[in-house]
Amino acid sequence: MKKRFALVLAAAFFAAAALLYLYFTGEGEGAGIPCVFYKATGFYCSGCGASRALRSILHLDFYQAIRYNAVFTFALPFIAAYFSALIISFIRFGEDRISRKIPMAPIWIFIAAAVLYGVLRNIPVFDFLAPVSL
Ligand SMILES: [Zn+2]
User: Fold this and answer.
1) Average pLDDT value over all residues in the chain
2) CA of 133 to the centre of ligand 1 (A)
3) How far apart (Å, rounded) are the C-alpha atoms in residues 33 and 84?
4) CA angle, corner 20, sides to 46 and 53, nearest 5?
């Protein structure tokens, strides 16, 4: 229990540090996570623009966040709720009592939508989905 709690505290500390770092670094200062897929192929993946979207969310610029990565911006509240519930479960019970209660169908639908989003944002007619700054 103590070991798991220490892991949860360490994860929360690193998440808070990453959010602070993103908040206080500006656009174009190299604070984002470079995309290996984009560097290798020149095509955007589903995750391209996610760190810039997170920075925009931290600055309460939700419109720009959607412009950088709409799927990430939509998914973030669900991801945050899941990890918050997971942390609370570990603190209260010492184990994961959350994951097995989540139905898989919506997760598979989301994964399919994310893959489709990754494909569409590289097609010129859907270039409004590309991660761009306004
Ligand atoms: Zn990418």
Assistant:
1) 87
2) 16
3) 23
4) 25
Q: In terms of C-beta density within 10 A (0-12 exposed, 13-18 middle, 19 or more buried), how is residue 61 classed?
A: middle
**Distance from residue 131's CA to the centre of ligand 1 (Å):** 10
In angstroms, the Cα distances linking 53 to 3, 35, 58, 79, 132 are 33, 14, 9, 15, 10
C-alpha to C-alpha distance for 127 and 122, rounded to whole angstroms? 7
Instruction: Report the separation in Å between the CA atom of 29 and the middle of ligand 1, taken as the mean of its atom positions.
Output: 18
CA of 66 to the centre of ligand 1 (A): 15
Give CA angle at 108 (105, 56), nearest 5°: 120
Which residues of the chain fall short of a pLDDT of 70?
1-2, 27-32, 134
Ligand 1 geometric centre to CA of 97 (Å): 32
pTM: 0.80
Tens-place pLDDT, residues 1-12: 567 777 777 888
Closest CA to 131 of 59, 19, 27: 27
